[in-house]
Amino acid sequence: MKIFYITFFVTILCAQNSNSIMQATAALNAGMFEEALIHIKEAEKEDPTSPNVYQMKALLHEALSQPKEALEAWKNCLKYSKDKKVKKQAKNHIKVLSYEL
Amino acid sequence: MTKKYLITIFFFFSCWSGPESPAVQTGYNFDNVGKLLLNIVSDHSNMLGSGAMVSNSLTHNFLKYGYAVSESNNNLYEIQINQKKKSLNLSCTITEFTDSEMIVVPYRNEDRGYTKTVVQQSLDMDEEKEKAQSSQLQTSTTTTHAGKVREGNRVEYTQSKVGIMLKMTDKTSGAIVWSNSYWYSGLELQRTIDLCIKSSVLQIKKLFQ
Questions:
Q1: What architecture does CATH give domain A2-100?
Q2: Chains A and B: how many Cβ contacts under 8 Å?
Q3: What is the ipTM of this complex?
């Protein structure tokens, strides 16, 4: 029984790791931005250097009228991204959001 | 030789005003401008009604930042800056207008593996020494699974993207006095339009301060 509980717990833990970004995207596509934000925060904990996670997080904060949090996420996106297009987007958002704050 | 290089470098930097900064006619006095006449904004080929959305956002933002906005008979909007005589025509071209730009997020489906330890404990009485001492028998089994990483998975979502090009021309001479482009992206189209226009109006506001 003990073994069963341990195995069950480990399985749940692994499933959560791989699914949080998928769950965030699914919630985002359904227009459930607050739900998506919860999942993207989990994804951030698992991979704190992923620019894609920060990009999605920033867009979600902007959609939820949270410019301060969005600005922070864009800064992290710019820090970790190697993609020119994403960097350009992050720079533009930082500039506009800095105006706003 | 070094002097020539320095002059060339200085000349290059003095000409280049950066990719995001506006083009301004040198010597034009914006202090004499009292009115902006907003021309009709044409729709982008991607979406009918996009011109009206941008136009309404422009008037909304000018109003929000303290300017008087009025609609003239021929559907043009007049934005009152001050009581000066000069007027500028403000035209806006939508360069980008989409609500379905795809963002692809590659991710790793990571099974991080596990370490499973089963501990069995039992109490045995030491009968030989006939003492009430107890010895503990402990067996542990450790199983380690390294896990596996599957790459190549991806998820997709869409974002809106709006781009505009603004141009101000002197009404009497027809000379272009100011021009700049702006773009913004976001999850919701209306909010994206608003933020794009907002940054442009804020820059125009600075011009007349």
A1: Alpha Horseshoe (1.25)
A2: 69
A3: 0.81
